[in-house]
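Entry 12.
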Amino acid sequence: MAKKYKKKYKRLEERYDILNEHMLDITDDNERYLNDLRYLEAFIDWKNLNEEFLYFKKNAYEKYDEDLPFSRLTL
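Predicted 3D structure (tokens):
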């Protein structure tokens, strides 16, 4: 009976390690995206584009192109 639990415990540890690695990747991606967002906000402010950004944010819609895998925002 103990061998059965050892195998299950080993499989559980392996799955935990995989999940932990995946979560670390997501955390790294999130930090990178937040840093990029910080620069974009600073750039918008530096170029005095705040009003244009707010206009775009309010009026933009998603445009779908059959040749592209994802939609994009446009006016």
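Annotation: The chain has a mean pLDDT of 93. The beta strands are 61-63, 72-74.
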